[in-house]
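Let's sit down with a protein and look at its sequence and fold side by side. Which protein we use is up to you, so please pick one and set it down. Label the sequence line and the structure token line clearly, so we can match residues to local backbone shapes. Go ahead whenever you are ready, and we will take it from there:

***
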Amino acid sequence: MTTAHQHFGGKMRKILLPAATISALLLSTLVIMPSAQAADGVVSSGILRDSSGSPVGAGQEVSLLAWPRAETQKNSKTGEKLKLNVVASAVTDQNGRFSLNITDDQSVKIATSESGNVDFSVTSTGKNGESYWYSFDRKIASDSGGAVVARQESQKNQKPKSLDLAPLTAAGGPATAVQDGEATEGLALKAALNCTSAKMQTYSPRWVTVGASFALGPSYYTSANFKMTAGASSTIGIGASPSGSFGSFTASGERTVGVSSENNYGNVNQGHKKIYQTQFVFAKYHVRCLTNPTTGVWTDKYEVRPESHFGGTRTVDTSITPAKNYCSEIAAESSITRTDNNAITWSVGAATQSDIGVNLSSKTGYSTSASLTYSSLDRRQYCGSNAGPGQANPGHIMLGDFV
């Protein structure tokens, strides 16, 4: 169960809200078993489609890569090569479907960051050079038998990351033969897939939406307060491209980044529609994979990913007016604090347009480290746009005037 706090005339009452059931698509819990039990430990599964939207058919190889530790990525210098290890592989069936089970526990453990997360990427190259790429992260631990256990924080359902992937571009180009001398430059000819990444650029800090509050109508004598403490985290989108050129990037994954400072956005009073932002640093990586060691063929992909929290706070007006679909009420002279569940995903919440030609997504969950409090001196509506404001996945949470 989840605890919320209500204050009535200076007295505090504790109430229990229903436990959160998190979206299996965005927040998956995965248990990675030893290879002998791989069928029970699917990390990611899904389907590959060609540029027309049809399944690719049987026989296309799909790989799961583990990136170096987050701290290694952050501290790497421009041009420094970092090895990405293949930790799972699969081949599509006749319907273009695949399932990836980790077979290299040691590489996963080495890739685990101080926060316990590992960055993964699913990659594949089509017969005509179509480029597939999707990145996500997982919290890593070990079970009582020592096997690697990968799970997304707060997730209660043991389901794999479900993907439905189309090529990064509609028209794929042929893979390129390795030039003389390139094959051994960080790309040993000893595996069917061998990948390295190198940081190309670190961008200036960009504003990212981490929360919102709404008091619809005049809503006199009301206030809202959004707060993030150090240790809170935001899930921010990743952009990928087969060329790396401006305007060629598409949303292709997400990554969890911790907040390094306490951000208290203060009280916003009376009727309002506000979003709350802080700044994060993004970096661009060039990923090169040797896809055929026999013929010496490699493919290139480019990724822009959130790297670290930069800091700062900004409160901005928004034109969004969420629907009051599921309403309860807040009593006069009381307040309610939401301290659990996932906040809504902002599809363009990360302001990366000027860097790569597209804005990326963002989401921050309400937790003991990130909370939204509404207070009112008068009786008001207390609503969620997608479900009741105390239920799982309520969407936007808001106050409203009784009509």
Residues 1-40, 153-158, 170-191 have pLDDT under 50 and may be disordered. The two ends are 32 Å apart (CA to CA). The helical segments are 70-75, 105-110, 353-356.
